[in-house]
Every structure is written in C-alpha cells, then in structure tokens.
Amino acid sequence: MSSLAQSQLRETFELNIGPQHPATHGVLRIKVVMDGEYIDRAEPILGYIHRMHEKMGENRTWNQFWPNMGRLDYLSAMAYNHCYAGLVERAMEIVVPERAEYIRVITAELNRIQSHLLGFGAYIMDLGGFTPLMYAMDEREQILDLLESVTGSRLTYCYFRFGGVYNDIDDDFITGTRAFIKRFRPQIPMYHKLVTGNAILMDRLIGVGPVSADMCRKYGATGPVLRGSGVNYDIRRNEPYSVYPELDFDIPVYKECDSMARYMVRMDEMVQSCRIIEQALNKLPEGPVMAEKVPKALKPPKGDFHYAVEAARGTFSMRAVSDGTNTAYRMRLRSPTYSNVSLFEEASRGMLLSDALAFLGSLDPVIPEMDR
Amino acid sequence: MNELIRLLAYMLGLAAFLGLNLAYLGWVERKGAGHFQRRTGPKDVGPYGLLQPLADGLKLMSKQLVVPANADRALYMCAPILIMVPAVLLFVAIPFGEHLVPREFNFGLLMMFAFASVGGLSILIGGWGSGNKYSLIAGARAVSQNVAYEIPMLITAINIVMITGSMDLNEIVRQQGAYIWNWNIFRLDKSLLMPISFLVFFICSLAETNRTPFDMGECEGELVAGYHTEYGGMGFGLFMMAEYANLVIGCSLTTILFLGGWQSPIGIFPGPHWFLLKMYFLIWCFVWIRWTYPRTTFWGLLNLSWKYLIPFSLVNLLLTALFIKVF
C-alpha cells in the first residue's frame, strides 16, 4: 500500500483540550490530532494568561517588581522570591544576615512541600482518584496557615526583601512548624500505602510517558522531570545558594524515566524538605533579619546579573541587565514548566489520550508560570 | 379488582422506593465521600444535610434546557429518557421478599440482561447526539465497555441458572437456603469456584454501572464529563439518577444471585429487610471503591475483560457443568 493510500485510510480528527479543561489545571490549550484513541500530534498552545512579567520588570523600579514574584508560580512563590532577592543582592553586593537566610530556606522548603502536596493530589485526581487530593489539601492547609502567620498571605507571597525578609518568625511559627513536621512525616508512608501501591495506579504510571535524559537536555527540562530521568541535577547542590551547603539532605533521583519516577521524586522530595526544615530550625541563629543600609531607591551597578534557584518544579533563574538606573534594562525570567511542557509534543506522539493526560499531569505544569 | 389494587399499590410502592433511592443515594455518596475525605459532606440543608437532594432537584429542574447548536436535537432529547426507562422497568422483576415481587415470572433474569443493554445504547445516543467530540469518544467507550463486561456477567449468570435450573429470580432465591453457607456464593457443593464467580460478577456490575474504577464514559480528567458533557439541568439529573437506579439494580441482582436475596443469614426472620440490608451493603462497597481507587485506562479495562474475565468465566462455566454432571 502506498503511503498516500495509507494516509487517506487513516481518519484523524482534531480535539481541542482546553483552554478550559479539567486536566490542564488552568488555561493551557493542547491542540491534539487524534487517530482514534491515539495521539498523532499534540501541540501545547500557550499565551492565554500571558501578563508580560518580563516587560513589567523593565518598566518599574526594582522594588515595585516584588509583587510579580508571587504571581508566577503561585504554588511555590517563595522560591521565586528567593531568586529575585538573590539576584539583586548579588548585583548590589548586599550581605544578608544569616538568620534571614535560614528563614528563607525554612519558608521556601515549607512552600515546596505545599506545592508538591497539591501536585500529588491534583495528579491523582487527574487519574480519577479524588480522595488523596482532600488528604493532601488537609496537610497543605496547615502549611498555608503557618506561612500566612509570618508572611500575611496564603499563596502569592511577597515576603522576602533585598537584604533579608520582611518579618521575623516567632516562637509560634517555630513550634507550629515542628508540630507540622511531626504530624506530616507519618502521612507520607500512608500516602504510599493508599495510593502508590495501588495496582491500578501502578498500571497507569509505570512505563508511561518515557522522557529520556537526552530529551530533557534537548528541551531544558529540569526539576523532578529531569531527576526522574536519572540525572542528578538540583541547583541547591549543583550551584549552591543561600545556606543549603550547610544542610544535609539528599537529592532523590530515579532512573526509570516514566511517570512513576517523576511522581516518586516529588514524594521523596517532601521527605527531604522535612529534613531540611528540621535542620534549619535547629541551626537557626539569633540576629537581625534585615541587612543594614539597604538603599530605598535601588540602583544596581551596570552589568549583567544572573541567579538561579531550585523551585518546586525545576530550575528558576532570572537574568537582569542593569544600566545603572532605577529600572532594569532587560529582565529575563526562565521558568521551569515552560521547558518541561515543551517536551510534551515530542514525548506524547503515539500515546493513548488517557496516558498522554496522565503524562501531562506528571510534568506538573502551572500555567501562569509558563506564560509569565 | 383485587389485581388492580395490587397493581396500583406496587406501582406506587416502586415509585416511592425508586424516588427515595435515587434522591438519597446521591446524599449517601456525598456524605460517604465527605467522611472518606476528612470533611463532613453536605450538612447545611436540613439536619445532616438530609434536604440536600431536594435542593439539588429543585435547582436542576429550574434550569433552562439548552440544546447545543450542533447537537442532533431528537437524539439529544431522548437519550436521558431512554436511559431512565429500562432502569425503572427492571424493578418490576426484583423479588424484595418471598411474597413481595411486583411481577413474578419465569424469565426475570433474561429480562434484566435484555434491558440492561439498553442503558449502554442510550449512553451512545447521548454521546452521539450531543455533537461534542468528548461525548462522542465517551459514547464509543461506553459501548465497547458494556459489550466487554456483559459477556462475563452473562456467562457467570448462566452458572447460576445451571445450578438452580431456573431463570425466575424468586425461585433462585428460594433455592438458596436460610443460612449463610447455603447462599450461592458459598455453595461449594455445586461449584468450587463460586466465590470467584461472585467476584467476577461484582467487578462486572461495577463496570456495567459505569462506576469508578471503570467510569470510562465520564472520566472527568480526560473527557470533561464524558457523555453528559453537554447536558445541563434535568437532562444531567436524569443521567445521574439513572446511574443510581442502575446501581440499585446491579446490587439487587448480585444480592439475588449470590447473597441469598431475602433469605436470612442466621436462619430466622427471612424477609425484605435482609434483602435491603445486603443490597445497601453492596452499594456502600461501591461508594467505598469509588472514593478509594483511581480510574483504569480504557485499554486496561478492555484487557481485564477480554484477557482475564471472559476466559475465566468460560472455564468456570465448563467446570460447573462438569461438576453438576459428575456429582
């Protein structure tokens, strides 16, 4: 049979998944060419929630850009705060008090647990299990309450400042965090018992959505996606920042390259984050939480600055070109899920629709961060 | 005259039973889901949220019926009715108690299966008539699922028919004795594989009623809401109610065929209360399963049926026949 005849025999149809679809968790649109239940081509189309964050970084002063940091990845906003603080501190050569750095790490890791919990719950919900989401939400609520007590907001944090953090943490926060860790630790084995060991779930995750390390490099995928493909790469270890070098924690890496590997990386990272928080709480030094003499009107010297952090979904890095005025000449945000989702088109070719959506969930996309 | 009164009484009784079940199974499911999920479930409307079904019904009925522009109007409108009719009809053959059968007749079991297939058809009609690609995929899935699971279900039911020699549902119950070991699920003297037959039947009725983990027709993660994506108001309400009606019927049938219907497990006071107790226990299991397990894939579902359940039930049928012949 000639290829022409073959292509005429194959009856494909187009399916628009999104921008309003329960599996995309936001306004992501995927244009899918379906061949029966198989995917011929799936093209993610972004831009439905584009807010020009980069341009905003260029036309407002350095301080005025702070609120935007809570509105990129609204689920792990603390890491984005951390990156922006680090960027400007590097440019201005501000020395941050040690207590502030520890507080940054504690809050950022709490935020990471919170983000992974929601990712876990929402992922299982994508696969049709509704109950784990509610369990995860229950735990997540505790973190949100804790973070609310120090930062004043529940999701879109604007807590860090150039040279420190806005508020010192109090004893209530410390005891509350310890109590949370104590309560949360035994929950993870419970999740594994309830969810991970389930035969249906294993059937849906193991071997589904293979993403090789090469493909990750090609598209710049980072975070749990990369670590689920057997590459030990975590900014917290590879380009250490803040006080991470002083803390003892492991980077979970799985070699299986499938959805299960990515899922397990996230689950294990929550355990490691608990370890980090405990150590940081134990080591927490006394002292101020703001550097002295941070100028109100910031004018970083001329130059090209870059700072990267490990956000919950991968490497978030910012690059700012300063021309010495009170606004940036160029602000570039490199967000992790933008790269992670861009491999979807190649990896989903020939997949079943339900597997492809399970795979999309395992990339854990957050749409506002993709679109910026 | 007597017959007429009897007919009227049964019609009213069934309507009341059905109405209560359809309304309150939704409440049971939501309350159950709530408690499984560390929350309370409905609690604001009436005591324990008991008036919630009324509020839901009122809301659904007061909604405008919108027919999508590219829907096939006739099919779109008749699908919810078509799914409701067989579900309601089937209650006619169910023996709630020894003398509490709306209509006792020889081919009750056959009628059950015949009308149950119509349910799958109306899902296809709804999916096709909606003029929505998600609905269409869901409809296609629902049909292949119903075909795949009706076969092992039927074959397993044939086992029972071979053992009891009757298709009369009341007769099947009567032949199962008063104690728990006389029920078909434990009648190992008839066939050693009886407990596993029960399991097969149970799994199949999960799939037949389109419940998690087999709710391929409406998997909201992939197909938005599946075959009822385009339905709002009471159209959607009828689909929901039909799901619960099918749930009641599936569990009733399992109770009748395997769990001794109205027979008492301890040998005293046989009657409708035992039937209801067993049926609601099974329904509770369905709810439990729904809020515990994730969904299988469509492929996994067909694999399970064609590769495991159908061959197993065929072998089971042969073994049962052999067993009956030899002993």
Describe this entry's structure for a reader.
The complex is a heterodimer of chains A (372) and B (327). With 372 residues, chain A is an alpha+beta fold. Helices cover 48% and strands 13% of the residues of chain A. Chain A contains 16 helices and 8 strands. In chain A, the strands form 3 sheets. A 3-stranded antiparallel sheet of chain A has the order 1-2-3. A 3-stranded antiparallel sheet of chain A has the order 6-7-8. The model of chain A has no long low-confidence stretch (mean pLDDT 86). In chain B, 47% of the residues are buried. The termini of chain B are far apart. In chain B, 66% of the residues lie in helices and 0% in strands. Classes of the chains: A alpha+beta (372), B mainly alpha (327). The A-B interface holds A 13, 15, 21-23, 37, 124-131, 134-135, 138, 194-195, 198, 200-201, 203-204, 352-355, 357, 361 and B 33, 36-39, 133-134, 137, 212-213, 215, 219-222, 224, 291-300.
